[in-house]
Here is the input.
Amino acid sequence: MSVPAIEAQGLSFSAEGRNILDSLDVRIREGELLGLVGGSGSGKSTLIKCLAGLLAPDSGVVRIFGERLTGLPESRVEELRGKIGFVFQYSALFDSLTVFENIALAPMRRLGYSRQRARQLVREKLAQVQLEGVEDYLPGELSGGMAKRVGLARALALEPKILFYDEPTSGLDPPTAASIHRLILDMRKSLGVTSVVVSHDIAALLQIADRIGMLESGRIVFCGTPEEFLNSPDPRVARFARPPAPQESSPRGG
Here is the structure.
């Protein structure tokens, strides 16, 4: 069996006296698109932040392409993070920086890019996310969908092998959300990146994911193909995969 792109064993994390992840195990194949679902507070966002090295777990091991991420010196962790892109729920752009500066910041600081070289890189990344000509805009001048695309372009700037998406369509209208989901799929197909998408949009994940994992009480209680997800007999899964149809209100008597 090939080395997984991402592997976690016995991952635990707590905050404010509450266990958020509880001895969680997961393996994600290279090039795979994994969707993560679960109720509020189930640990989805915490999990991907631990997998990306943005949070340090209380215990357990995270490996990126077979190399241990947890417990390493910060300098080596930074090197491994260079393989990882992270798209935050609310884009997390720096309000006082232009789109160019937001995307170019990491390449210029970490890779020593000149401003001219960074300008070309930013143009390329914006073209990849189908958003050109906005380099000099400030984040406040962007629509929600545009900001999401800039966040993705920033994540792509270091040529990552792995992309994490934390609720990438939160707050967007359905057509814009659909365009972001198409973009996520395009990035996976064109770049071959391993993708992990946290989302409440079950219908979209059923269309784009290779597998869907469900978290409950800090553990992954199901992980399988979209078809397996839809047909799972587990009532916890069925509650998400096949929610009951809303009941029609009875007509009032006259």
